[in-house]
């Protein structure tokens, strides 16, 4: 299809003036110009798109309640956390009420990366006080992504494994211990009993090192390819880490804020309570805000260094007003329930699709409105990923005006993570289009 002039000009301007490694969706066919949005629709000069990729706009693009709260507070005042504000205290107490009772203290920041960086600082001090042997060491999962600041790139193998200039190994820092992706579909251990086998890797690091300060995990690995933690994995890993004075961070930046449907936080579905929960993305529905929620004891260990914590924008009055409006919208619009019921319907439709297209759909996984389809050339014991097919489907969906993305170490997992306002009709449109493109793919890829 012909690329419109506006797209051509914007891509050229972007390529000339922004960093060469700052990417654009669908760059090869001119990108998508998005200048307005509403619920699950993104719009621009090219018309409307069904947005199945924006979990940041959790309560829907440009939610009127969130917009009104932001505009109102911007016209009232924009102050930092050193000034008292009733809105901030109201917001913090509402947000903490969504978490288990033990997690009773919140630090407000501006992004998921900042949240994880602060979480690491806190964990180190706590572990030191607990007499942990290697308080600065971190166990992270291969293919994890936790953010873009230096301390967090260190614990984000998803990111640094992209390095192609010959220096990849230099990104693997001595304090970082990497365990396998607990992928019960395609990893070294498979099936319903895989969890404890993956947890054994965490236990082994604990016994080899004498104990590390931090274990960090995403509650479902997004960039890693929508990997759901297998049963008992977190329970056993947490126990092994805590036994030697370490603590456990659940990164809920992608998965938090009712997306799971059954629960407000994804970690709840595994029956664990983390020591630290980090959050961001949907927290402000697009406005930059993040948070680190901890047990009081962890916050006290952090404060015991005597170093003040100050963050110019963290906890500013506008962010808090927007954050509160997001929580209110989730509740008033019944979005957790919607994520549950529409998520179940999505799972049902995708499972039928797998039955229809046989070997090509190796796995359908996830809960609520955070799901994925893994495309494979071949299933069975020697699974062969099929990134080309996944790309074919994602590009086809774009032609049908549906935005999705693909990820995972092999780029063969289609990710579905729309705003929580997604409807059954949206599911039908999405799955109908995937079905169509898989049908067309048969001629290209000779099933
Ligand atoms: N954690 C996870 C799980 C993420 O997916 C991301 C962003 N994709 C981050 C942290 C970093 O958040 P941010 O980009 O807001 O810094």
TrEMBL record:
Pfam families: Aminotran_3. Keywords: Pyridoxal phosphate. It comes from the Eukaryota. Gene3D superfamilies: Aspartate Aminotransferase, domain 1 (3.90.1150.10), Type I PLP-dependent aspartate aminotransferase-like (Major domain) (3.40.640.10). Coiled coil: none annotated. This is Uncharacterized protein. InterPro entries: Aminotrans_3, Aminotrans_3_PPA_site, PyrdxlP-dep_Trfase, PyrdxlP-dep_Trfase_major, PyrdxlP-dep_Trfase_small. Belongs to the class-III pyridoxal-phosphate-dependent aminotransferase family.
């Amino acid at each position: 299809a012909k690329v419109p002039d506006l797209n051509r000009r914007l891509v050229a301007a972007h390529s000339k003036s922004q960093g060469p490694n700052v990417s654009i969706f669908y760059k090869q066919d001119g990108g998508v110009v998005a200048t307005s949005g509403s619920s699950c629709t993104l719009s621009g000069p090219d018309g409307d798109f069904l947005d199945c990729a924006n979990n940041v706009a959790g309560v829907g693009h440009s939610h009127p309640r969130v917009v009104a709260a932001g505009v109102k507070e911007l016209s009232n005042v924009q102050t930092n956390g050193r000034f008292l504000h009733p809105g901030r205290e109201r917001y913090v107490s509402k947000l903490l009420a969504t978490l288990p009772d033990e997690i009773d203290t919140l630090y407000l920041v501006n992004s998921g990366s900042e949240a994880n960086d602060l979480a690491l600082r806190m964990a180190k001090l706590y572990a030191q006080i607990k007499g942990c042997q290697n308080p600065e060491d971190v166990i992270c999962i291969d293919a994890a992504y936790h953010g873009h600041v230096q301390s967090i790139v260190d614990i984000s193998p998803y990111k640094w494994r992209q390095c192609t200039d010959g220096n990849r190994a230099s990104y693997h820092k001595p304090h970082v211990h990497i365990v396998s992706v607990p992928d019960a579909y395609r990893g070294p251990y498979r099936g319903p009993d895989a969890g404890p086998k993956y947890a054994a890797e965490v236990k082994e690091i604990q016994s080899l090192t004498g104990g590390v300060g931090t274990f960090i995990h995403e509650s479902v690995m997004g960039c890693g390819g929508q990997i759901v933690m297998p049963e008992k994995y977190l329970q056993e890993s947490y126990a092994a880490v805590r036994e030697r004075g370490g603590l456990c961070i659940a990164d809920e930046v992608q998965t938090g804020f009712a997306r799971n449907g059954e629960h407000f936080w994804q970690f709840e579905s595994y029956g664990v309570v983390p020591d630290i929960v980090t959050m961001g993305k949907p927290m402000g529905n697009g406005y930059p805000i993040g948070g680190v929620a901890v047990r009081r004891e962890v916050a006290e260990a952090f404060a015991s260094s005597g170093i003040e914590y100050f963050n110019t924008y963290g906890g500013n009055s506008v962010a808090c007003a927007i954050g509160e409006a997001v929580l209110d919208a989730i509740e008033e619009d019944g979005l957790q329930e919607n994520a549950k019921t529409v998520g179940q319907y999505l799972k049902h439709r995708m499972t039928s699709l797998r039955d229809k297209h046989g070997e090509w759909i190796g796995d359908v996984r996830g809960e609520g409105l955070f799901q994925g389809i893994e495309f494979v050339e071949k299933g069975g014991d020697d699974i062969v990923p099929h990134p080309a097919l996944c790309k074919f489907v994602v590009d086809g969906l774009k032609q049908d005006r549906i935005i999705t993305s693909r990820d995972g170490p092999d780029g063969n997992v289609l990710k579905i993570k729309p705003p929580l306002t997604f409807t059954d009709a949206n599911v039908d449109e999405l799955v109908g289009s995937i079905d169509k493109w898989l049908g067309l793919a048969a001629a290209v890829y000779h099933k």
